[in-house]
Amino acid sequence: MSNAKILVVYYSRTGVTAQMATRLAGRLGADIEEIVDRTDRSGPSGFVRSMIDALAERSIPIGAAAHDPASYSIVVIATPVWAHHVAAPVRTWLGAYRNRLHRVAFLCTLGGSGANAVFEQMARLSGKSPVARCKIDAHDLRDHASVRLLDVFCDRLSRKLEHVKEIEWAC
Ligand SMILES: Cc1cc2nc3c(=O)[nH]c(=O)nc-3n(C[C@H](O)[C@H](O)[C@H](O)COP(=O)(O)O)c2cc1C
C-alpha cells in the first residue's frame, strides 16, 4: 500500500490514542502526525481544563499541520473521548482543515461511553461521512481486543483504498 495515500492524525493526552494511532499507521504504511496542543493539560487542573474546553466546544491554540491533508486519499483522525465530546485539539484541527479533506475515517479511545456522540461530532465538524470507524475502550485494552479491532479497521480501510484506486484508474 502506498504510504502517500493515508495519513493518520491524532491527539493524545496520556498516550493511549498515540499508541493506537502509531500501531495503525505502522500496519497501513501510513504517514502519521500528532496534533500539537499548546495548552498545559497535565495533572488535575489539566484534566479540568480539558473537560471545560470539550464541553464549551471551543477552539484552542494548536500547532500548524506538517502534512497537507489534501495530499491524502484518506485521513484517519484519532481522538480520545472527553466528556462525550471530541477532544478540543482535534475539534480545532477539524475546523482548520475540513476543506482539505477528501475522505475520512475515525478512531476514538475512551473509558467506556460517548463514542457515538463523538463520531457524530467528527462527521459534522469534517463535513464528511467516515469510510470506517473504530472505538477502543478501556476493556478492549485490558483483554487485548484492541488488536483485533485495529485489524478489522485496517481491513476496511485497505479495501476502501483499493476501491479508490480502481475509480482513479478508471477515470
Ligand atoms: C477530560 C477528560 C474527559 C473524559 N471523558 C470521558 C468520557 O466522557 N467517556 C469515556 O468513556 N472516557 C472519558 N475519558 C477517558 C479518555 O477518553 C480515555 O482514557 C482515553 O483513552 C484517553 O486517551 P489518551 O491517553 O490518548 O489521552 C475522559 C478523559 C479526560 C481527560
From TrEMBL:
The keyword NADP does not apply. Its cofactor is FMN. Keywords: Flavoprotein, FMN. One of its GO terms (molecular function) is electron transfer activity. Coiled coil: none annotated. InterPro entries: Flavodoxin/NO_synth, Flavodoxin_CS, Flavoprotein-like_sf. Residues 5-123 form the Flavodoxin-like domain. Pfam families: Flavodoxin_4. This is Flavodoxin.
